[in-house]
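To: structure subgroup
Subject: Chain for Friday's discussion

All,

I'm putting the inputs and outputs inline so they're searchable in the archive.
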Amino acid sequence: MLIVEDEYFVAMASEDALSDAGFDVVGIAATADDAVAKADATRPDLVLMDVRLAPPGSARDGIDAAAEILARFGIRSLFATAHADPGTRARGEGAAQPLGWLSKPFSPEDLVAAVGAAVAEARRRRSSPGSG
């Protein structure tokens, strides 16, 4: 699992919760470009993707990164965001086909449950002919 989150403490807390739950976290990225590069280098099963990334001088957000990661590597994302308004959700669904949405703020238990469900859905899609 790759975590893409521009808030340091949220990223660290997410990594701790997921690692404690037995998930293998292969890295953390804070920008869209870093997310794509790390996805290329590590090929995670899933990306936990913050929708709103705030890198200086970049217009790319988490939806852009998730769409590129899906197109280039076939890796799906679970969006974690406080910005799940209908417009953002429609853009994310169309561009990145996420495995789900997790609303911020979330508890470690909510994070682990959402990631578990997303991993199960990703496995189901990979094992079903013609799905995905």
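Points worth raising on Friday:
The first strand starts at residue 2 and ends at 4.
The chain has five helices and five strands.

D.
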